[in-house]
Structure formats: C-alpha cells, structure tokens
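Researcher: Re-running this chain for the archive, since the previous output was lost when a drive failed. Same request as before.
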Amino acid sequence: MGDIILSGGEIGALMLLDACIRLLPGVMGASSSGDDESFEQGLLEYPHYTRPNDWEGRLIPEVLRSGDHAKIEAWRKQRAEMDTRSRRPDLWERYIAARDKSASGARREEEKENGA
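Model: Regenerated structure tokens:
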C-alpha cells in the first residue's frame, strides 16, 4: 500500500480486497482492462488526459490528438518509462534487468535456431 498511516484496519482491508477481487474474471469487464495499469508490465502507467485540450495552461500532447495509434502507443510507452525511471528507480532497475534478460534469451534462441 505504500508509506501511509491509517486510523484503523478497515481501509487497508478494503484496499487488499479490491486488489484481489479485480483479478477475478469478469470483475473489470474486458479481460484486457488492466493490461496497461501500473506494475502490470513492470512500469508505472502513462499519464491520462481528457478534454478540454487546454486546461489551466496544460495542453494535451499533440500526439494524443493525432489519431495515429502507433505513435500514441509509442508515446505512452516512452512516458511510462520516463515516469518510472524518475519516480521509482527500484522498479526501473527491475524492468531493465528483465528486459535485458529477455532480450539475451531471445538472442540465445535465435542462435540455437541458426545452429550457432
């Protein structure tokens, strides 16, 4: 739950229940609903924006208004990586280690397939 102080155990119990119940099939609707949430891929979730396009001097990034789904996905991944690296270095280190391990494992599989 993080570094917090509660006045009783009820709120903590509700948080634990919610974290478990949301994993049950059908609770969140589509099974892919939580795929991009924080911690699912080892990263914090990317920022979310809504309308209007300009709110108190804060602009929605142009790429999010472009309609180019590939660019939007790339932006989301980049922001998730940036935010994780700056806000949660512990998660970032694990993410990098897992990514490097996965990449080297893929290279080993390619080498086996190519007879190297």
